[in-house]
């Protein structure tokens, strides 16, 4: 065999190439996966010692498919499967592949058995569970445990809960998402829906401040136990949060407020209960799991109302708190309110559709004008102009479709706020470019529309009888500070108004904001139950009266440039509804000039604790304590910055010292 081709050519011989020897294949040991599998098989095989019952059981034979009829074949095959030997203490069938791996040492048997038993006990929730049988898929509605509280039981036993339930049936018209049937009694609700009944009693106890605060503490405690510690996810639990947040202003406290957190808790439970989708089809279909029972028409409508209530609160409260709305509008929501409108189980179902549609428009306003990118755009920008015209056409269509409704004033109230919020974009500075394509006239029209919408808002608010102010929901009252500061900005001169020739004097004459605020102060003073001796804890009406009075003084200083004389001083005992009405008979709904007590006397509280509202007042007779509202009385104080911070969130409370008696700005 030659390896050199030249030698082959010289010798005239054929070249034969030598074959290279193959490399010896290395013997590979068992893989780690195979070793782990054998180890696990060995551990499992140590537990295969059958008990006496399993030893006596004869091995079953696989039935002949020809002998089984088609209707009974699956059932008999399933029974044959569970007749096979199983692991000790478990219903899982013993695989035949492990039959040859039973031989293990006594030491390994004891150690692995203890280890596996500990793993099995981790998932044991009840000692009475029979693990020798396969699990049964049961579709049962979880029952809520009763509320074990003396105050709750006393209200039911003394029939006071019946009157509070009747009060709620009147209140729920402003938030028609959780109706109570006329035939439902408090005893029935206490058994089937205790958390919903507790939320109803809390909201309806607005006349009894002490009892309302006690029920509020009980509700928050029970909610923590049933939603986090020992979860009981039910539709009625979501309904209770919807009712609680709808009238949250009665128990609002900057120290304990969790408005956004409670809202997201309700949304999370609603999604866990699949309220956001048409069917309750599970994501994973387990073998042998029977289909879920069909819901009745009444149960479906109840779920749809609850889900729409979550969306309404999410949109309104997120807007008021300047937070993103995490629950977006979907086509399924439109299907829900259309079905509720067609079925008309309750008369209030007719109002759900217009409210949801208006909330959708409000979400579009925020997405179009209040994102990080859109906030820096001037009014003359083409994107602002185009989006405004598009949303304005939607508001006009909504208005034409909702002109006659039994609860029209609630819809008009929400419409006026949405329209003012849209046209208040005109308060932004005009475009700096020379080409404004009739931008000045369009901005003037929007400024006038915003002013008219704010005027309608105040007119409707004062058209409400003072005795019906408790019907307005938390989301309605959250709109008031925004309306006040928007109208104030429209009536005060600035450079942007001069650039578009906006007449602030005409705006001041058109909307007498000072008189509106004075009338609201008088009404809220009459509704408040605060009394220095009898009831020293200021309620919601007293706190709102203080804020409106301070805002009125600030506004008058801004437009007049001089200090406004305070109203006549009244004693603390005259701040109760009875004394206010006796001093001014027949004028509960008619504002009288300077009828409200001055802030110097109204804010002199003997106790620094505010209980519910916690706005931190100093002692009445202690002159050494700093006045917490002194900074607001300064002529140069910018009230619009204070209201822009949001009186409902915790930002102003923490940043400005609310609750501590030493407010800083």
Automatic annotation (TrEMBL):
InterPro entries: prtT, XnlR_reg_dom. Residues 67-81, 570-605 have a biased composition (Polar residues). GO terms for biological process: DNA-templated transcription. Residues 50-81, 565-605 are annotated as: Disordered. One of its GO terms (cellular component) is nucleus. It is found in: Nucleus. It comes from the Eukaryota. The keyword Nucleus applies. Keywords: DNA-binding, Nucleus, Transcription, Transcription regulation. Residues 184-341 form the Xylanolytic transcriptional activator regulatory domain. Coiled coil: none annotated. It holds the Pfam family Fungal_trans. One of its GO terms (molecular function) is DNA-binding transcription factor activity, RNA polymerase II-specific. This is Xylanolytic transcriptional activator regulatory domain-containing protein. The lineage of its organism: Eukaryota, Fungi, Dikarya, Ascomycota, Pezizomycotina.
């Amino acid at each position: 065999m030659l390896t050199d081709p030249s030698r082959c050519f010289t010798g005239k011989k054929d070249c034969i190439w030598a074959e290279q020897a193959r490399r010896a294949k290395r013997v590979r040991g068992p893989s780690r996966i195979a070793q782990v599998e054998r180890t696990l098989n060995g551990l499992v095989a140590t537990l295969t010692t059958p008990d006496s019952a399993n030893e006596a059981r004869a091995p079953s034979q696989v039935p002949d498919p020809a002998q089984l009829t088609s209707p009974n074949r699956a059932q008999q095959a399933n029974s044959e499967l569970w007749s096979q030997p199983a692991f000790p203490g478990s219903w899982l069938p013993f695989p035949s592949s492990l039959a040859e791996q039973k031989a293990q040492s006594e030491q390994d048997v004891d150690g692995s058995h203890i280890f596996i038993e500990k793993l099995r006990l981790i998932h044991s929730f009840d000692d009475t569970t029979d693990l020798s049988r396969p699990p049964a898929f049961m579709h049962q509605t979880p029952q809520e445990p009763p509320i074990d509280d003396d105050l709750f039981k006393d209200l039911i036993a003394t029939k006071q809960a019946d009157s509070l339930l009747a009060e709620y049936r009147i209140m729920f018209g402003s938030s028609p998402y959780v109706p109570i049937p006329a035939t439902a009694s408090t005893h029935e609700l206490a058994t089937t829906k205790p958390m919903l009944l507790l939320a109803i009693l809390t909201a309806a106890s607005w006349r009894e401040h002490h009892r309302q605060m006690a029920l509020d503490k009980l509700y928050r405690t029970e909610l923590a136990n049933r939603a986090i510690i020992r979860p009981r996810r039910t539709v009625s639990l979501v309904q209770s949060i919807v009712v609680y947040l709808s009238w949250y202003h009665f128990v609002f406290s900057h120290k304990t407020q969790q408005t956004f957190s409670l809202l997201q808790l309700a949304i999370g439970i609603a999604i866990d209960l699949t309220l956001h989708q048409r069917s309750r089809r599970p994501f994973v279909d387990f073998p042998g799991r029977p289909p879920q029972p069909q819901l009745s028409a009444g149960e479906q409508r109840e779920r749809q109302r609850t889900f729409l209530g979550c969306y309404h609160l999410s949109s309104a409260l997120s807007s008021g708190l300047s937070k993103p709305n995490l629950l977006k509008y979907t086509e399924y929501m439109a299907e829900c309110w259309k079905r509720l409108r067609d079925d008309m189980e309750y008369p209030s179902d007719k109002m759900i559709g217009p409210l949801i549609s208006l909330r959708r428009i409000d979400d579009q306003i925020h997405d179009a004008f209040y994102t990080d990118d859109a906030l820096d755009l001037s009014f003359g920008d083409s994107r602002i102009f185009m989006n405004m015209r598009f949303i304005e056409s939607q508001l006009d269509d909504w208005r034409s479709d909702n002109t006659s409704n039994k609860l029209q004033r609630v819809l008009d109230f929400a419409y006026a706020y949405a329209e003012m919020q849209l046209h208040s974009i005109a308060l932004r500075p005009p475009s700096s470019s020379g080409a404004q394509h009739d931008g000045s006239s369009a901005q003037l029209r929007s400024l006038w529309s915003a002013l008219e919408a704010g005027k309608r808002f105040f007119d409707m608010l004062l058209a409400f009888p003072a005795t019906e102010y408790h019907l307005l929901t938390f989301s309605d009252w959250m709109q008031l500070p925004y309306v006040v500061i928007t109208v104030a900005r429209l009536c005060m001169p600035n450079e942007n108004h001069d650039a578009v020739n906006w007449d602030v004097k005409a705006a001041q004459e058109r909307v007498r904001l000072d008189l509106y605020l004075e009338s609201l102060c008088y009404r809220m003073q009459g509704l408040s139950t605060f009394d220095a001796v009898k009831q020293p804890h200021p309620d919601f009406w007293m706190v709102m009266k203080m804020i409106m009075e301070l805002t009125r003084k600030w506004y008058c200083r801004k437009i007049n440039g001089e200090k406004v004389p305070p109203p006549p001083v009244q004693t603390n005992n005259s701040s109760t509804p009875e004394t206010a009405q006796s001093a001014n008979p027949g004028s509960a709904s008619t504002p009288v000039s300077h009828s409200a007590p001055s802030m110097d006397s109204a804010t002199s509280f003997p106790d620094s604790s505010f209980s519910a509202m916690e706005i931190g007042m100093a002692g009445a007779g202690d002159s050494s304590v700093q006045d917490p509202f002194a900074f607001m009385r300064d002529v140069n104080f910018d009230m619009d910055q204070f209201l822009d911070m949001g009186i409902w969130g915790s930002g102003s409370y923490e940043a400005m010292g609310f609750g501590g008696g030493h407010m800083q700005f």
